[in-house]
Amino acid sequence: MDELANKLSEYIDSLNAEQEPDKQRESNGNPELEKGLAAIRQIRSLREPAMPDSDYPAKLAQVVTERLAADNAGSRQAENINLKNSRSKSSRLRLILTPVAAIAAGLLLFFLFSRGPGMFGSNIVYAMDKAVSQLSNYHGVLEITTQNAAGEEWLVRRAEIWSEGDKYAVQQNDGSLTVNNGERKWQIRPQEHKVALLPLVPDPVKSGFDLRDEAQHAMQYPYAVVGEEPVAGRSAKKIEISPPGGSAYYLWVDTQTNLPVQLQMAMQNALQTTYTFTSLETNIEIDPNLFAYEPPAGYQIADVNPGQLVAAAGEASAISGFAPLLPQMAPNRILAWPDRIIMDYGDTTVAEKLVAGNWAIIPGAALGTAAGSPLEVSTDKLRWRQNGLEIEVEGARRIEIARQIAADLTLPDPADGLAAQGQVAVPVDLEIVRADQKQVDAGHTPWQLDPLQVSLTFVNLQVSPQGIVGEPQIGESSFQLAANNGAEAVVTVNKGPVKQVYLKRLIRQDESGIWSVVAYDPR
Predict the structure, then answer these.
(1) Which residues in 12-93 belong to E strands, given as ranges?
(2) Which of 23, 79, 384, 434 shows the smallest number of beta carbons within 10 Å?
């Protein structure tokens, strides 16, 4: 048995030294040696993530040895197991073994160590990383849904995606097709018979859930497997991922393919967005013409300045005419225009430009603070002003990266009970509200999406109960948004019978949800 152990030890030494073992180390017909060599070759092909605590190998070795010794009492005993293992290429694994049972114990230890942090649970993140690294391309249908705090869910959009290396194509519900072939980006718009040439920045749909990006993030951030459940008819492991400086989110990984199939972002402003691949096929034949820039006959070409790719922030500053505010994390690439700079982080973009005009928040967006200034918070974008620049951060890691620019960034809290502060309650008929929401969804009365316009109508009806004829008595300039956490809002009025108006999104808590007045403060 000593000779058998020596041959296995020499074989392992050769593999760890990245050398092809000599022919003399072949089994020469010895079945026990051949089994040992086969097991070592299989184990050696596994990844070697971070090791457990330094005293763990000795403890595990003792437990395994004692159990084997009990099973083989009176016949074979493990005499000694010495294990030396490091992550460098020069590491050596020396097994001093006698019986076959002890050899099995050593191989078991090596196998367990190679599995890394999830050795007694799931190692699905490492399996996902390996599966994604073997992707040459993929094609799938991605559904984006939103859920509010009450558990109501609706479909935001559906997109068909083709991805091959740095190339991708995304087709939306309306038939528009956005293509990025790595050298040029364009969008074909059938309804307008137009082809728009676009800047080489990530597409919002693709950047929302890209297989390679999500596998990379899962490897970088702390994670925990929290369950297993079906996703689009496939069994999937549910993983909780906790990015530093951001809120935890969830990723589902197909147990058969080890590929990510669903992503659920953290709830923000009483809304939670989920990306689900309802179908996914990988390593297939994709028509190369899909990524070829060939505008359809008769289509108008709209040439949008695609920007200049630069190597450093200094070059971007020279082109744009201003010095950008840089996050701590270096971007994948920087694009510059005479009036703006975009930093590309793969799944997130940072756009900066010089401040121009008065600050105005888009209707329906929530309101936070950043760098001591108002922060506009929409479903997947943050916008604020800082040091003479207007900054937009859009994408999956918008909060994490935005806080690297404005450390005091504070998001609105939907649970702060803004509407409860109103002095006079306003009765609301939910059936009427639901009907109004359907009208807005159909494209009618869009003013109900703006809390300022809803407040203007409400206050002027207090002044003129018979209805508003012509210009309202209390004009738009008298109304100002004081707070908006995404679910509730407060609007101040500087004249008239009402001092403050309190509103809620009763049906849907996102930019498509209408506002209803639920209370007010009389003057």
Answers:
(1) none
(2) 23
The CA distance from 383 to 379, in Å, is 12
CA distance readout (Å), 469 to 402, 461, 463, 473, 475: 46, 10, 12, 9, 13
Write the pLDDT tens digit of every residue in 297-318: 999 988 666 678 888 899 999 9
Closest CA to 454 of 419, 399, 503: 503
> In the prediction, which pLDDT does 304 show?
64
Helix (H, G, I), strand (E, B) or coil at 101: helix
- Both structure tokens of 178: 């956005």
Which letter, b or e, does each residue of 14-31 get, where b requires 16 or more Cβ atoms within 10 Å of its Cβ?
ebbeeeebeeebeeeeee
Cα(205)–Cα(394) distance, integer angstroms? 11
The reported pLDDT for the residue numbered 45 is 47
| CA neighbor of 234 nearest in space, from 282, 277, 283 | 277
User: CA-to-CA distance for 10 and 97, rounded, in angstroms?
Assistant: 12
Buried b (16+ CB within 10 A) or exposed e, 291-301: beeeeeeeeee
Sorted by sequence, the CB contacts under 8 Å of residue 497 that are 6+ apart come out as: 459, 462, 463, 522, 523
Helix (H) or strand (E) holding 507: none
> 460 with 454: CB under 8 angstroms?
no
Q: Which portions of the chain are predicted below pLDDT 50?
A: 18, 23-25, 45-54, 56-58, 61, 64-65, 68, 72, 74-102, 104-105, 108-122, 204-205
- Summarize pLDDT for 38-56 with one digit per residue, the tens: 666 555 544 444 444 445 4
Residue 364, judged by CB atoms within 10 A of its CB (0-12, 13-18, 19+), counts as: buried
How far is 450 from 366, CA to CA, in rounded Å? 11
